[in-house]
Amino acid sequence: MAEVGLLSFARIALQVSRAVLPRYRSRFSKHQFNQPQLLAILCLMRYEDWTFREAEVRLGDRRELRPALGLVSVPDFTTLYRFLQRLDDVAIDRAVGETVRRLRGTRRKGRGRARVAVDATGLAQGAVSTFFVRRMHHHGQKPLPWRHWLKWVVVVDFDQQCVLSQLVRRGPWNDCTNLPAVVEVASEQTRIGLVLADAEFDNEKNHTYIRQQLGAQSVIPAKRGKETWRIHGVRTEMHRAFPRRLYRRRSLIESLFSSVKRKLSSRAPDRSLRTQKRQALLLGVSFNLYRLRHHRLFLRMSTELGHAWGSISDGWHFSQCLLQCHFSVSFPRARLLGCGQSGL
Q: Which CATH number fits domain 90-122+151-267: 1.25.40, 3.40.50, 2.60.40, 3.30.420?
């Protein structure tokens, strides 16, 4: 994506990293770079879809970005790669939880339990253009360069449009049995009142877990099978009277996948599967930071707009306030302000 809002993203990423990681891993560390700084750089890499070498070059070129990350010097690309190798899933889960806590702290009062959706999408394992791969496959009759891909399973609060929990594994794979695990992690972040999922997660055990353990409503369409199949329990209710209007909200998770792949990245590159999983998990953290940055910007501009409306004294002052708030609105200003020919 374009390099827009890097400074604000870097500041927020550093604040979240400081809340979830200790400053140094050991008292014998070199103390040249600390762990929150390196984690913030990794999130910035996922935000801009940089490679490790590109991150080193961009940090060296952009002088104003280093103070935002608290850097005195630029870390080598091998330093970033080795830190990614040492980073564990627990630290990434804590970072996701911290972003969710900050996003929910700005949530309007009066809302009840969260409404979540569960789904999975595929991520590319390399930086090769998918258009080039498909062209070789269709026109050259050559086999695809890989048989597996990364499958990213996420639980999304579709009202806040943020990732609550995530799971990565090699596909193709049926993730029906993984629903209780990812939903349980999401329930630790917030109270859940509704769970939406597609037919891939259709299972009576999933309905039972959501309704009995979480006390939430589950909406999962029952699979269409043979006439000899016998369904029972909640699946029978889903088959007879499926709440289609409520289920339509599940499409919002597809919008989130589209935003992640268009604005951040659609790949998790590396040679080893372990590092590919780390890259995919950092993608979820970076998207939450991206949402947090935009939410803070919206709140700040809304506050500035409120001060602008409260301090209007004449037409010229009003135009200056609108320019400060970055809004361009066209309406009959002279009639609205009553300033006649002497005003706007």
A: 3.30.420
CA pseudo-torsion sign 70, 72, 74, 78: negative
3-state secondary structure of 313: coil
Strand order across the 192-197 sheet: 162-171, 149-157, 114-123, 192-197, 217-219
CB 81 within 8 A of CB 271: no
Residues linked to residue 121 through DSSP beta bridges, in sequence order: 152
Buried-exposed string 296-321: b where 16+ CB fall within 10 A, e elsewhere:
beeeeeeeebeebeeeeeebeebeeb
User: What averages of pLDDT result for each successive group of 10 residues across the chain (344 residues)?
Assistant: 75 96 90 95 95 94 92 95 94 95 72 90 76 66 66 93 93 88 94 94 93 94 72 84 92 94 90 91 95 69 48 47 44 40 38
Identify the DSSP state of 144. Answer: P
Per-domain residue ranges of the chain = 6-86, 90-122+151-267, 311-337
Sign of CA dihedral 117, 234, 227, 179: positive
